[in-house]
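Notes from the 1:1 (GR / supervisor)

We went over the backlog. Supervisor wanted to see one worked example end to end before approving the batch request, so GR pasted a single chain during the call. The sequence is below; no edits were made to it. Supervisor asked that the structure be written out right there so they could see what the output format looks like.
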Amino acid sequence: MARPRKRVDLDRLDTPGPRRRSIIPKPKSDPDRFGRFAEAFARSMGTANFLFWMTLFIIVWVVVNTLLGKDRAFDWFPFILLNLFFSVQASYASPLILLATNRQEARDRISVESDRKQASQSRADMEFLAREIASLRMRVNDMATRDFIRSELRELVEELDRRENVPEREPAASGREKTTS
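Structure output shown during the call:
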């Protein structure tokens, strides 16, 4: 028994319409999962292991079909079925390898952009530190050095010695003199 549909007032704009359900479910695909599959496929096709097993498969195919003879072979010379397999493999391999390459280029682009930002930040930091070092050098040049302080102290000590050797003057008499009565 089917459910009765709710009656919807379509004149109201704030009321959503009825949900439409499909009999066939929509397949949900994860593009990242397929991308990982494409990269794994491309990585495996570019290995010596793949080439070895593919070469072995072709040799066995040709030898078996040749030894069985023209009457009993399932794919006699010119090996049309083998060529069909290769064509199908190539038609799937090309887009998968291209997808893997595009994903790698995207990762490389992000990596290069990150490196560029890091280099820019490093350059700015180095310029800042160079300015700070230059200002410190200027301040250090304005500072008194150890030798300068020693020479000043020597001069002060010599002046103090001269003052000790000079007899003290008596203070000048004030304008009033004491009278003795």
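Supervisor's comment: Residues 31-128 form one domain.
Batch request approved.
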